[in-house]
Amino acid sequence: MISQDTTNHNPDTFFMDFLTHETLLDSSAGVRKSGLKRESVFEEHSLQVTDPEMPIIENKPDFQAPAWILSVFIIQFLMIGIVLTFFRNLFRLQISSAFSQSNQEQLIREGNPIKQTYTALLLLVFGLTLSVFAFISIKLNVPGIKINDFELFFYLFAFILGIPLVKVILFSIIGFASRERQVNTIYTSNLIVFDVLIGLILFPIVFFYTYRQIEEIFYLAIAISTLLFIIRGIRGVQLVLKNSSFPSLYIILYLCTLEIAPVLLIVISILRITGYLA
Question: The pTM is what?
Fold first, then answer.
């Protein structure tokens, strides 16, 4: 009589052992051998850095603009509102004079723009806009500045607004000494018109850049400012050459120095801030 070994050939037991890997059948001895360890392929150590010298990259936190920056934008918005409310016609004439010489002549006949209240308000918008832009750019690119934020902003504002004022004063002195007062009025009004235009165009761009800090916005603002400064310089040279009795060579040399020197100074400052120039 042949006995059946139900222990090793039970189909259910064999099938379960095969699936769970709890036991193996030793083919040479025909006995069970247990102890096969199960291990997950998702071990904790596989998520760790194996090279201790490998640098850990940390996300650079965004710069948060100080709370008083919003007050600066509100002041600018109020000044623009005052101009649009009380000086709407002169404002339109001043903006259009950037593209039309006849409108510029009409603007001058209405009164020297330098002495007008609306011009002072719009120049303040220009100075504050560029100061905020420079302030945010410096804080993003130059870590570890020891100077107080508000003090830094004040110095930037004085520098940016001081450049056109110094140019107006110098040209006024030269115009008075050379008896070319009409040329002086035309040239300085051209300076003011384009500065006002730059401030108004950059105002929403700088506001967005302050709270979003996207690199493309930075380059957009730089490109617009550079283009308008170049147009302003070319337009100023043309106006002076047309209305002045001085030799053209001296006028070109003087105006190029007067226009290019501040631009070079600003470009060098930007390159130093961004680290492209030591």
Answer: 0.69
